[in-house]
Write a structure and sequence with these properties.
The chain is an alpha/beta fold. It is 26% helix and 23% strand. The chain starts with 6 loop residues before the first strand and ends in a 6-residue tail after the last strand.
Length: 218
């Protein structure tokens, strides 16, 4: 894939001994990869939340597996892999975005613990292992994605898998419908502003922390 039309975006993380996270992106969303090739505010808020929780010692992913759905540029997953070098991160998106993900992994010298693969929510793709953590940012901007995403989360998450889902509110009624759909199989709570990065947060961006509901035997 040709990246001559892309520009570099940089994100600073809290550890002073680590270089900036750098990803190529298309701010216009006009290339073949569409809006998935753009760094969106929700991804920044989620990345900085993960950074903040790590700096406080409240997030330890040593030996854990992380799956990012709808990775886009891969900014969030790459940052998480940098913060937790002892975890294994898989970035996923549609096939046309995988070359961009691989390029951004290479740009951050992150190939030791971060990889990219195609995962289309509209198919029944399975994984080799059940992830310990699934992260999703801005995965519900299109109503047509709601059911495929809910079904993908239900299929890939195990009983102990933690799911962090973030989105910027655009169409409240449609987003409420997704939350209702998701609540059929998951229990979750909203992540308060006091838990997020003190600077990188927004009243229009919501973060949720969830796990599968435990089935009660009849």
């Amino acid at each position: 894939m040709e990246f001559s039309q892309y520009i570099e975006y940089e994100l600073e993380i809290s550890r002073a001994d680590m270089p900036l996270i750098r990803v190529l992106q298309d701010p216009s969303g006009m290339t073949r990869c569409g809006v998935g090739s753009t760094v969106w505010d929700t991804g920044l808020v989620l990345a900085k939340y993960l950074d903040h929780q790590t700096s406080l010692g409240k997030l330890d992913l040593s030996g854990k597996t992380v799956l990012e759905l709808g990775s886009g540029t891969g900014l969030v997953g790459i940052a998480l892999g940098r913060l937790h070098p002892q975890c294994q991160v898989t970035l996923t998106d549609k096939e046309e975005l995988v070359p961009l993900l691989n390029r951004n992994i290479e740009l951050n010298s992150a190939t030791d613990n971060t990889r990219a693969q195609c995962l289309d929510w509209t198919t029944t793709t399975s994984l080799d292992t059940v992830p310990d953590l699934i992260i999703v940012s801005d995965g519900i901007f299109d109503k047509d994605l709601h059911q495929p995403l809910a079904e993908t989360l239900a299929r890939l998450a195990g009983s102990e898998t933690r799911v962090l889902l973030a989105y910027e509110t655009r169409k409240f009624d449609e987003e409420a419908e997704f939350i209702a759909r998701w609540s059929q199989t998951f229990r979750f709570r909203d992540i308060k502003p006091s838990e997020q990065d003190p600077v990188m947060q927004s009243e229009d961006i919501f973060l949720f922390d969830g796990k599968r509901k435990i089935k009660v035997a009849e």
